[in-house]
Here is the input.
Amino acid sequence: MSKVEIISSCLVGMASDAPPMSRLELTPWDLRLLLLYSVQRGILFHKPQSQKIDHNFIDHLKNSLSRTLDFFPPLAGRLATVENDDNTACYSVVCNNAGAEFVHAVAGDVSVSDILEPKCVPEELVSSFFRLNGVANFEGTSKPLLGVQVTELVDGIFIACSANHSIVDGISFWHFFNSWSEICRGFDTIPKSPVFERWFPSNGSRPIRLPTLDKNMSQNYIPPPLLKRVFQFSKESLAKLKAKANSEAGTVKISSLQALSAHLWRSYTRCKRSNGEAVFIMAIGARGRIPLPEGYFGNAVFGARTAVKEAELLQKGLGYAALKINELVGEQTSEVAIKGVEDWMKNPVMPVKGNLSFFITSSPRHDVYGNDFGWGKPIGVRSGKAPNFDGNMTTFPTAVDGGIEVHACLTPEVLQAMEDDVEFLEAFSVTS
Here is the structure.
């Protein structure tokens, strides 16, 4: 593996001396992720033609990060724990300006093409561009809640953020990333301020008391050998999938993402072949369902699950699978979202790293390619190592408007079978 050399490392605090808030209470959506790992996303740029990457360049990134943290004080804080007499604990974020980790690194023999062109993502190389690798969310009591690494390549720059998943979901993560790029580009303020008002069910007691965490559970899962490949679906190929799904289902309500998810689900099931139940899980946003205010900061996501017999999924076609997903999404009402939180508060079960079967996560709506730090837009996006399990499908927009990029994490056997799957490849437009 190419060597990544750390040039400098420091903690970056808020520019303001007085944090606008002292503490952030964690909601059930936040707390249930304590045994999982950071959200790790990084964006790749061509090297600036008009700017030299020197001490001043790195200082400008650090200073703009500091000013951005003024708007996001929890990311400069640490987790705090209060142990109770009944063997429970309460968790919150103390906004003490302990600082986010900032690292400047150089990968002197790595080019943009080394990241974008291999058929499979070079995981060991890409993971070396991220901070907080292997750090569970509960470790935020002593570890930074945000880690940033800026890595110089031969002909590019990779800016990676790792954020504690008990503090942010994908929407809040990209809200922060977008805001940092705007401040770096010269703005004095950000167009959308984060909202730190917390949401809890009206009948729930606060603060939430969690049973003692089995912290070893986060380390017990050993994944099988896995590969990650990026599949890109163009606007045109998505339109064909959507039209086919709606035609077969006799409806017009199936979306492009639902049609693509059905296409991926059927191919994964066809290639894995366990001759049992085909499970489908999708991350569902709660912001519009509760509803929550614009800019709500924190986690507001829950999982929705459906399952059918494998033979039925494969025999009945794309329209059947897409309609199942459409119906699943339609069932996720405000009442369902609220009841899920209420039930969890009565019996807090902590998900751990492991195989969730087939899982659609992230969103093609995230503004990945709007992150212009002052030298142009990104040319690619990559994730860190966590979470990795067979069947994890992470979705992003493509650099070209209207497409969807799927980062598929699969066992080598399933990936090879999907690459040989004629029906899957019919809708597959570009590889990287």
Q: What stands out?
A: Residues 22 and 95 are 5 Å apart (CA to CA). The first helix runs from residue 28 to 31. The longest strand covers residues 277-285.
